[in-house]
C-alpha cells in the first residue's frame, strides 16, 4: 500500500479552504489540518501526525514573508513548505527564493496534478514552474542540498534509505517495490529524489556511492 503524506493548508477564504481540503483528501495525501493564516497555524497545537507539507495558498492574499516561512519551519520542522499562486508572475520567484520554499504550484492545475506535485514535494523534491525567473531558485535549492559522505544520508528520509539499500544491492525497481510493499511508480519517485539529493546522475552512480558509505552491506 502506498504511504500517505500528511498535508495541512493555509487559506484565508473559507469556501476555497473547504474546496482545497476536498481536492487534497485523496491518497497518497492525508489532510491533517487547515488554517486561515500563518499566525493561526503557528498558534495551533501540533497535529498528531508529523506534517510532510504545508501548502500556503496565496490566491487571495499577497505574499509569504521570509519571517512567516521561518515561523512555520520552527513550529513544524518536519514539513516542506509549498505555495499555491494564481499565476506565475515576475514577483513570485523572488518571493519564493526569499522564503526558501520547497515548491510553487499553480491554482489552475488539475486536481490530479496538484496531488502529484504535493507528493513529489513531500518526498523531498523541489517543484517550481518554468521557465523565466526560476533558475536562481532551483540553484539555491540544489546548493542547500549539497554535502557528501555519510552526512548526506541524514538528508534522506527513512523510505529513501530503504530504497537506497535496494539500489546498493543492485535490485531492480520491481524487487524493491515488492520488498517494501509499495508501487513501482513510488520507487521511481524515490529514486529520482535520491539522485537529486545526492547529486548522482544515475542509479549506478548512486549505488556505488551507497556502498562506499556502507549501505547495503548487511
From TrEMBL:
Alphabetized Pfam families for the sequence: GerE
UniProt-listed InterPro entries: CheY-like_superfamily, Sig_transdc_resp-reg_C-effctor, Sig_transdc_resp-reg_receiver, Tscrpt_reg_LuxR_C, WalR-like
Top-level taxon: Bacteria
Signal sequence annotation: none
Keyword DNA-binding listed: yes
PROSITE patterns: HTH_LUXR_1, HTH_LUXR_2, RESPONSE_REGULATORY
UniProt keyword DNA-binding present: yes
Positions of the Response regulatory domain: 6-122
Assigned keywords, A-Z: DNA-binding
Domain HTH luxR-type: 149-214
Name by which UniProt lists this protein: Response regulator transcription factor
Organism for this UniProt entry: Albidovulum salinarum
